[in-house]
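pinging the channel bc i need a second pair of eyes. not urgent but kinda urgent?? the chain im working w is below, pasted from the shared doc
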Amino acid sequence: MRSRELLPCPRLRPYVRQFWILELEDPVAFGPPERIVPDGLLEVVFHYRTPLICRYDGERFEPQPRSVAVSQTRRFLEIRPVRETGLLSVRFQPWGAYHFFASPVSEIADRQTPTTALWARAATELEERLAEASGDRERIELVERFLLSRLARHRKADVEPLVRAAWRCKGRTSVAGLCRYLGVGERTLQRTTATALGTTPKRLLRLTRFLHACSLLRAGDAPRAEVGLDCGYYDQSHFISELKEFSGLTPRQLAADPAVSWLAFD
């Protein structure tokens, strides 16, 4: 199995967190299904060999489209290969993806959307070129040129300050408090989060608090019983129910299972 994480070109770094390349010949080498908990990121996956199979919480495993946008703000996702696999994934910043689409992110939130629904024939042409490419460098260059062309068409107002405001308080504020900090009205904030992030302000704050708790649990620097209180949950019952809603796991399971992953905020 070969796995690489690479930074995009400087012009894309404000919007794209990283590229991920995965290649493997034997699906057994992948191990058990990887569980990816909601993290508010949107990811576009281009398969140039057999697509992975995946399932959202409550659904059955199904093959992914050849290229697909995957959004998670509510439900965990599990992935695994079934044959020889090769893919290039674009992991956008939480505020980054909507600059590349004509449609609001709310229209593709918490589901898998074939890229042909987003970029029509241009997506199919890119799929074909990626399948014919000679290696990582050529595939990265193809995807970067494609994304830069979409950015030139669709770039919109910057919402990074909104997301970072939620991160700064680790989700421990109210929607009204977030509005005061940003100097906007609640209706404006609702519209902005739906269009740019595919969620609501309340869900954004809940998700941020959950991700902070995940990081503390995995670090193991504090007893699990204290993590919930440190993150602002009312009590242990509230803490456990929130973790189960987002990840399907208890705090102990989430902390211990290496097949559970997320991209922490920074």
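so The longest helix spans residues 136-154. and DSSP finds ten helices and eleven strands in the chain. — does that match what u expected or am i reading it wrong
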